[in-house]
């Protein structure tokens, strides 16, 4: 179909006997065949066999759909920088700047909450910046062995391979074999060195930073787990469309988290007059200091590090917000909204009951509820 030179058509060569053949093909469905622009052999690419790489170019007019389970590019706030005192100072300066621009009259709880949540997230972005994370950040975190020495050795091997293809002399073949052996040794030594460093770091984290240790273990386990693109519905049927899968997950967690046969519990009436008093900044500060770092945020994207980094101005603003909620008897919608995340346990990944659901709640809402719990 496509006219090319002989070297770009034959995919297999046997130089000793002078044989060649077109035995490697690209299989294409009939609906994609009109979109194929070209197909040819790429002789410059190294393979571990005596075959050459076959490549096809396809032009599609529509956007390629996202593949289920494919790692996406994740951009998040670089909140780890709040551990730096200078960054923490910038964070509070930006938050105070936003606080000074807000009118002092008390509005409804939703408007007050919107101003606070928007200001604290914006201050975190401006002071900490953003960070690309996840498997889709453009680099493989497991290729730390790719050093300058390895890169130069691989480059020399490729140049020797291309020289052997162009000349075909015994000297060029011997040079390529030598470069290939050298590269294999360099890569093996680099990988061994990196794995030893990784093991030493894991051993150190196990003794001094258990949270980081288990986070690394979880990431390694998650990379080996295949994402389930299909699930079994309530009747045992296999659901394949995204809409049906999301709908069944929603129905499953609604039934699981809202049982109908729960016994009623009578709540004791509070006798302490402290319940009716205003919430103090000392109460809020004590609860905020007890928040655990590194936890996932709720729907408002406010992390515990944001609250733990607040100075007097920020804590005063949060206390003011809690008092509005206490006096009005209502809380913002974000405080009552939970993000349900499913964590796989074991068994068939297509069965919803083999997952553990956890609910991510708003951290300012947690602070408010814990202050009330302490009072009663």
Automatic annotation (TrEMBL):
Protein name according to UniProt: Reverse transcriptase
Species assigned in the record: Hemibagrus guttatus
